Amino acid sequence: MQIDIQIRLTKGPIHSLQAFPPISIENAGAVVTFRGVVRSTEKPPSEKPADPVSGFEESIAGLQYQVYEPMTSQELHRLALQQCRQHGVLAMDIEHSFDFVAAGECSFVLQVASRHREAGIRCMDDFIAEMKRHVPIWKIPHWKN
User: Does the predicted TM-score (pTM) go above 0.85?
Assistant: First the structure.
């Protein structure tokens, strides 16, 4: 089975939702989409006292994402292939931001096409968890204060 994997790194926020080409999802019974949005608060650095009123988080203007290319794209592809094979997924489309993304804006889109919903959802969850552990993408908060 051929697995279709698409990866894009986008400067700034992601404004569009790239749809799978029909050939990629010919036998799919589910296309699951996740859009990651920058929250308006983040935990402060450990040397800075936390604000108990805001739930120990402080307001941010946004996040600065740094990537290490070409390793970031290579690791995203390696991880996508691994997770697709593990879960029997037909296709995966990944888009992640680099540079500044304001609070409330989209910084990550993941689409998974699978024969069944359950496999797509599990693949998506596992992919995101592994991406956070292994892919060289760093986020730096831009504090409002």
Answer: yes
